[in-house]
Amino acid sequence: MKKTNTASLKTHSAEPSPVTPKCSWAHFALWQRVKDALNALPIHFRNDTFIEGINATDIFTLNSALGATIENQVVETLNQMRSVWDSENRYQTYAFIRQPQSFPDLERSWFV
Hints:
Layout: H1 6-11, H2 28-44, H3 63-80, H4 82-85, H5 104-107
């Protein structure tokens, strides 16, 4: 049996390291409150999607549609939680929006 070196596994993580902005950044407090809102999201998240008539082993076939639904509902929930991340109403012109994935070529003008 081959022994795995766990120390080397930790150093080669595929996950990016978290980035923390400088405390002097004008929006640092907002950044912290948005993080708090994201951490509290599971408590506030509600899903009205009902799926019937499909075997649990076939749920993967709904991956794209279900993923898009969850993404939309996360954005709606974050906007409903405005009092958590914008308690002073300083960012009333801001909101979370979901932008569907698209190929970069679709956004370019072909007539340049």
